[in-house]
Amino acid sequence: MDKGYDTLTEYILIKYRWAFVCVFLLPISLFYDLWFYFRNWIVFKFTSAPKQHDKKVKYVQKQIREWGDHGKNNYMCTARPGWQTVCFRLPKYKNTFTKIEVNLVDILEVDVKNKVVRVEPLVSMGQLSATLNPLGWTIPVLPEIDDLTVGGLVMGTGIESSSHKFGLFQHICVSYELVLSDESLVKCTKEDNSDLFYSVPWSYGTLGMLTAVEIMMVPAKKYVKITYLPVIGEENIAKQFTAVSTDKNNEFVEAIAYSEYEAVIMTGVQTDNAESDKINAIGKWYKPWFFMHVMQILKINSTVTEYIPLRDYYHRHTRSIFWELQDIIPFGNNKFFRLLLGWLTPPKISLLKLTQTDAIKKLYSNNHVLQDMLVPIAILKNSLNIFRETCNVYPVWLCPFILPYNPGMVYPKSRKETLYVDIGLYGVPKVKNFRAFEDMKKIEKYVTKVNGFQMLYADTNMTKEEFRKMFDHTLYDKVRRKFKCEEAFPEVYDKVSRAARL
Ligand SMILES: Cc1cc2nc3c(=O)[nH]c(=O)nc-3n(C[C@H](O)[C@H](O)[C@H](O)COP(=O)(O)OP(=O)(O)OC[C@H]3O[C@@H](n4cnc5c(N)ncnc54)[C@H](O)[C@@H]3O)c2cc1C
Ligand SMILES: NC(=O)C1=CN([C@@H]2O[C@H](COP(=O)(O)OP(=O)(O)OC[C@H]3O[C@@H](n4cnc5c(N)ncnc54)[C@H](OP(=O)(O)O)[C@@H]3O)[C@@H](O)[C@H]2O)C=CC1
Ligand SMILES: CC(C)=CCC[C@@H](C)[C@H]1CC[C@H]2C3=C(CC[C@]12C)[C@@]1(C)CC[C@H](O)C[C@@H]1CC3
């Protein structure tokens, strides 16, 4: 029996999780998706959603009114079950707070004239790309995991390989509609209710219930012409990655670092014309996992160009959940598995979460890192070194983004628009004697020192004071006082801290 497992049952449950996942979770995931596909299709065809929207918002208001009538004796949160969220942990507060049903799942209007799509908060990224792309439109920042929701991305944050041009998910949002704790419905934009508008991102549902969002749209083309550039040497990686990230001719930029010295930098532009022999529909079930495909290019060590259908490009990391699925189904990228069962993958993140045993949870908590650290790109090389010394997790996802100097919790301390990079660490740490709490705390301290930020879906080991140092609460506190949020919702920290999550 391997070291680190307390009992034989624990060992079997973890080592052979793939058997449970393949036999049960994959078919259930498929039915779940088919049901949503069918339901959305009906809703879209008969355009019933916009007609229902006002009624559904009134229901949110009614529930908040009832919370007030019952003496406001505890906080509110959405009724979305914790296991459905794209986050490793379960929010404990869902068991005790008053749960408000915000059952708003539809795309309300595609306004081609004003280039804006109006959506409800539970619309997922898979749903949005499937709806908009066939119509010839897309949103400028479309985070890649299908199940991410607009509400979660607005209240937390969202990033994608186009973020070096357009910023984070909130930077492409034009307006938010919220029901506040006094049951009033307000719309905020940069011009109207601007304090609220700038305080909503990163507020994690602690200012009000989001009911609709207007998001910018841009024209979509058929393919992304992608150039893979293998780069060797840590100095080169940082230098070349920074250079392509500042070049606005690149519509998409990301990199995967496979070790301290080896990375593949990918740049892309949208196009309608592809060289037919270079089309690679990477999203098809029998195709290799994207990060494995990229690793092959690193091995041949020469620049490669190909054309990926737009929607396949957007969801390129979905099928292998970045590189997380290899720990769950170790043979998932095997040619025969892909041909036979690839169309059933990936298992839904929500179902993986729902069915994980305590032993799996313990293993992930103590010996697995799921973190995204956002730091100024100028210190990329140093940050990669620190992260390697502290946890040594590879592959590493690198995604540049532009951070405007806007009011709110997250802005460059330099007080001018600054290019940042998201360093995504997902996997098993290879340092000897990794200590989840102490080592991640060390990284958090470093990130705060360099004016960086930690994504809120990830575990945080910070104290409230440290958290307030990383995220500027000045405007947030003012808005919470103004809209009487203090009696209705906890502070962000009290929703994301270790104590608030199971
Ligand atoms: C409507 C819809 C909703 C989805 N919702 C989710 C989700 O909640 N979570 C998730 O993980 N994945 C979702 N997906 C993605 C899904 O899991 C598959 O990845 C996807 O359906 C793959 O099929 P495809 O690429 O062949 O579909 P596509 O070729 O992308 O689309 C199939 C057809 O559906 C039509 N269509 C697109 N949008 C809509 C719509 N809103 N209503 C009706 N017809 C539409 C298009 O015109 C297209 O012809 C959704 C997909 C669709 C089409
Ligand atoms: N590429 C990317 O950018 C990726 C981003 N992520 C992260 O995942 C998270 C999004 O996951 P997802 O499952 O969609 O969202 P979640 O359900 O995790 O929601 C995140 C927060 O937003 C709040 N929220 C959601 N909808 C509403 C609403 N209608 N009104 C008020 N508050 C709301 C939730 O409040 P409550 O607790 O009350 O339910 C929760 O605190 C984000 O934190 C994002 O940063 C993860 C992976 C990739
Ligand atoms: C691109 C950005 C910014 C973030 C990507 C983060 C994701 C890779 C993780 C977010 C939640 C994670 C979970 C898992 C894998 C990695 C994420 C999707 C699991 C599926 C791993 C297996 C566990 O049993 C359940 C996890 C749920 C959350």
TrEMBL record:
Molecular function terms from GO: Delta24(24-1) sterol reductase activity; Delta24-sterol reductase activity; FAD binding
Residue ranges of every copy of the FAD-binding PCMH-type domain listed in the record: 36-220
Pfam families found in the cross-reference section: FAD_binding_4
GO CC term (a single one): Golgi membrane
Top-rank lineage group of the source organism: Eukaryota
Membrane topology: Single-pass membrane protein
The keyword Oxidoreductase is annotated on this UniProt entry: yes
A single GO BP: cholesterol metabolic process
Gene3D superfamilies: 3.30.465.10
Keywords assigned by UniProt, alphabetized: Cholesterol metabolism, Endoplasmic reticulum, FAD, Flavoprotein, Golgi apparatus, Lipid biosynthesis, Lipid metabolism, Membrane, NADP, Oxidoreductase, Peroxisome, Signal, Steroid metabolism, Sterol metabolism, Transmembrane, Transmembrane helix
Transmembrane segments: 16-38
Catalysed reactions, semicolon-separated: lanosterol + NADPH + H(+) = 24,25-dihydrolanosterol + NADP(+); 5alpha-cholest-8-en-3beta-ol + NADP(+) = zymosterol + NADPH + H(+)
EC number in record: 1.3.1.72
Leading EC class: oxidoreductase
Localisation per UniProt entry: Endoplasmic reticulum membrane; Golgi apparatus membrane; Peroxisome
Function noted in UniProt: Catalyzes the reduction of the delta-24 double bond of sterol intermediates during cholesterol biosynthesis. In addition to its cholesterol-synthesizing activity, can protect cells from oxidative stress by reducing caspase 3 activity during apoptosis induced by oxidative stress. Also protects against amyloid-beta peptide-induced apoptosis.
PANTHER family referenced in this protein's UniProt entry, alphabetically: 24-DEHYDROCHOLESTEROL REDUCTASE, DELTA(24)-STEROL REDUCTASE
Protein known as: Delta(24)-sterol reductase
